[in-house]
What we know:
The radius of gyration is 23 Å and the shape is elongated. The longest helix is centred in the N-terminal third of the chain and has 17 residues, at 95-111. The chain has helices at residues 3-12, 21-33, 95-111, 130-135, 195-207, 254-265, 297-310, 323-328, 353-367; strands at residues 37-44, 47-54, 60-66, 84-86, 89-91, 117-122, 145-150, 165-170, 172-181, 221-228, 239-248, 274-279, 290-291, 314-318, 334-336, 341-342, 350-352. Helix 1 (3-12) crosses helix 3 and helix 3 packs across helix 9 (353-367). Strand 16 and strand 17 (350-352) form a beta hairpin. It contains nine helices and 17 strands. The chain starts with a helix and ends with a helix. It has two domains: 3-170 and 289-367, Zn peptidases (Aminopeptidase, 3-Layer(aba) Sandwich), CATH 3.40.630.10; 172-279, Alpha-Beta Plaits (2-Layer Sandwich), CATH 3.30.70. It has a six-stranded mixed beta sheet with strand order 1-2-6-3-7-15. It has a four-stranded antiparallel beta sheet with strand order 4-5-17-16. By secondary structure, it is α+β, with helices and mostly antiparallel strands. The mean pLDDT is 96.
Amino acid sequence: MEAIELLRKLISVNSIYPKETELAELLEQYLRNIGFSTERQYVSANRFNIFAQRGEGDRSILFYGHMDTVPIYGKWKNNPFELITEGDRLRGLGAWDMKSGIAGVLKAVEECKNRKIKIIFGVDEENISEGAFQAIKKKEFFEDVEGVIVTEAGNSEKGSLGTKMITLGRRGRCVYLIEIEGTSAHGATNKGENAILSAAKIIQFLESQNLKEHPHLPRANQFVRKVHSEVEGVSIPDKAIIELDRHLVPPETNSSVLKELVEQMKQFENDKLRINVSIKERKTPYLEPYITDRNNSFVEKIAEIIKNKYGEVNYNYALSVADENAFASLGLPVVTMGPTGEGDHSSEEWVSKESYLELIEVLKEIIE
């Protein structure tokens, strides 16, 4: 199947999480048809990652891509599951994030058979990375892996530079609960401790903080994503909850930021007000930040290929988390590179046809 037709086929399949099964079955068959052995790793009933490998050798190269897309956001001018061509722009749900990356891997590995290649296609990246966390439990699969290439564009302050740019790190992310317990009293009095007012003071404090800088990654940041408090009748509200969404940079970890917040909240406490800080529970762990060393031999080989092709290589460090954070926790060098595009998570999503085809050729060179 030609490259554009393959992308058209992938986009035609609805894989909005958690409905990746139809696409997973298609990719599984495609991989078998080009000589890969495949294995399913179930994340839940009828929902699975695909592990594939082909070739011989002591060391392998691993390609990763996530099969799911976000829901249909915004007002699409055309059917989101139909590939639309507008000059160099190919439009469709997942065109950039990241079905062009998956199609690019499939086309690149079709012809390159003199190398041990491994592939993982995972579920749930656009949600809580259930697929990635399940995948890294299969540790024996990674024992001979020299490095990981993820064919997704790293979200960047530099914009989308396609295969001229490789992403070597991402911030981490964690959500914290700040639970405020004040003191109730009749609303007609000046007694009690209003938890809502305390929450407002804490939010102002959080917004005023200068968070940690990093020599490569964008500065750490945070935002209040939810505030909840209510009371019945004429009573001072004595409870409020703030949800704080934090993006972290090394050497920060989820637990170190928790300790920092606990210390910061002590200044707001008094004999009528207590504050508890915790990490909001979810099914999978929150992703820690990572950096891949650009002097790693695997990275240097890729950088040399890109420099020879374009005369330059741009190193990027991404704004937000992705499944790469999970794979980096294995200690493997992780390189993210994908085609040029824009508008992911919106009705304006597109990928450059030229850059998509370039990705295929660059991946072939890397494999060789």
